[in-house]
Amino acid sequence: MGRDEHKKGSNNAASLPQTPKNQKIKPKDMQAEIAEEFAELRKNKKKKEFRWP
């Protein structure tokens, strides 16, 4: 009888996925990133083009 018999699930089940280094942004740049996204949303909201297919 090995130790594995009483183990349920895997060790990775409780861990969170890791973010690749090239996709991480610095905490101080986070506010600028959010501001850019809101500006883009406001710009798209002003255009409001509705086209029916």
Automatic annotation (TrEMBL):
Biological source species: Sporosarcina oncorhynchi
Ranges for region Disordered: 1-32
Descriptive protein name: YfhD-like protein
Residue ranges, compositional bias (Polar residues): 10-22
Domain of life from the UniProt record: Bacteria
